[in-house]
Amino acid sequence: MVRLADRRAPLSEHWIVTVDTIIYTRELRKTFRVSRRRPGLLGGLRSLFNPIVDEVLAVDGVNISIARGEMVACLGPNGAGKSTTIKMLTGILVPSSGTAEVFGMQPHRQRRAVAQRMGVVFGQRTQLWWDLPLRDSFDLLRYIYRIPPRRFAHNMAIFADLLELGEFIDTPVRQLSLGQRMRGDLAAALLHDPEVLYLDEPTIGLDVVAKHRVRSFLQELNRERGVTVLLTTHDMSDVERLCSRLLIIDHGRLLYDGSLEAMRGHVDDEGTLEDTMREFYERTSRELLV
Ligand SMILES: Nc1ncnc2c1ncn2[C@@H]1O[C@H](COP(=O)(O)OP(=O)(O)OP(=O)(O)O)[C@@H](O)[C@H]1O
Ligand SMILES: [Mg+2]
After folding, report:
1. Which of 125, 73, 71 is nearest to 237 (CA)?
2. What are 260-277's pLDDT values in tens digits?
3. Where are the domains of the chain?
């Protein structure tokens, strides 16, 4: 499992490419170039003409293979590289090196074709139209994705019911509470019947009732429609409730790929999953810094 000593991402037993593999990465890397400002006023001026450029290795050789119908949680401390990985899989970011393939296509090269078959929700920001009522955002998406009217009506009815959108569907998005907005975002990401759903912190800031509703919805989506789900979260109950497979990323490297049960076997702690994860992060951090 964890082989930090050779400083390379391990190829886990889950990294098997079959006909069912729909998300595939091989030695996937992303480096950001960021300019740093020198301290002080003069330094600031100097930096305008001669910036100091640092390289941040956000994702460092990640190998992932996810089969159709799986529900996988990607965990890791802040700044680990989870969102960057998801952004490369959605085509928002271009990999610096390595391969990312979804449905056999490179997301950043075939953005439209991949977008037609995927849905994505970033918990931290909405993809809905801020000033429009939720219903109008859905209508716009119907045109953008060219969703057939009957399909659209069918999906709307199901999602409005499961996510209980009824009481705020005519409210402008900017007036929605976080939990209401998140439910709206989830429905919006699914109206075009995507085969894959990426969720970057889908339960952030939700109350216990809203969390329960969103989790039940995701379970049903996976079970009934066979939607493949890759989610990131800091909430261990999301993992316990939804995902049997975990990916743990730290410092841009994939450090664990396996079941929740096997994960518990790797640490001494007998406590909650949160305790287990904390011990895992602390241990790997120490090893990575050696
Ligand atoms: N656009 C960007 N420009 C420069 N650096 C970035 C950019 N986006 C991310 N990074 C850096 O890449 C690293 C990984 O960030 P990322 O957002 O993928 O982390 P994360 O695992 O999603 O963390 P969190 O749990 O806090 O959401 C961090 O060091 C971050 O500062
Ligand atoms: Mg993130």
Report:
1. 73
2. 888 877 766 677 888 888
3. 21-117+194-289
